[in-house]
Amino acid sequence: MKRVVAAVLLGAALTFAATGQSASAKVYKKAKVEVVNPQKALSACMMCHDITKARTQKFGPPLYGIFNGKQPKASLAGKYPRITAAFLNKFLANPKAVDPSSRMPIRVTDAKKRAQIIAALSKLK
Ligand code: HEC
Hints:
The chain is mostly helical and about 120 residues long. About 45% of the residues lie in helices and about 0% in strands.
C-alpha cells in the first residue's frame, strides 16, 4: 500500500501543464539536452526501476540497456519493435495511451523533462 501512495504523489509532482502531442514532439526534437548524471535525471524513476547493470526487477522492469536495445513488452512489440527515443517520448508522456494495460502509474507531461529522461536512458549502457 505504501508504494501506491508514493506513486500517486509522484504522479502529481511530475504532471506539468499538458502540451499537445505534436507540440511536445517538436520540443523533443529541438531540445538539446545534456545529461551529466543519469541518476539525477532518473531519480523519479528509481523507486520502481533499477537503472544499474544488475538489472534487478523491482516494481517495474530494469531500465539499463533498454534504449534501442530491447523490445517493449510483448503486447506492444508488433507496433513498437524497439524501445527507441520516439517510443519513449510517447510512452513516458502517457503510458496508458500507448499501452492500455500498462501498470506504470506516472506521466511525464513536460516535453523538456521527457527529453532529459530519454537522454539519460540512452546513457545506460
Ligand atoms: C510507481 C512506479 C513507477 C515509476 C515511478 C516509474 N515507472 Fe516505469 N514502469 C513501471 C511499471 C510497473 C512498468 C511495467 C508496465 C507494464 O508492463 O505494464 C513500467 C514500465 C516502464 C517502461 C517500459 C519498459 C519495458 O521494458 O517495456 C519504461 C521505458 C519505463 N517504465 C520508464 C520509466 C521512467 C523513465 C520513469 C521515470 C520518469 C519511470 N518509468 C517511472 C513503474 C514505474
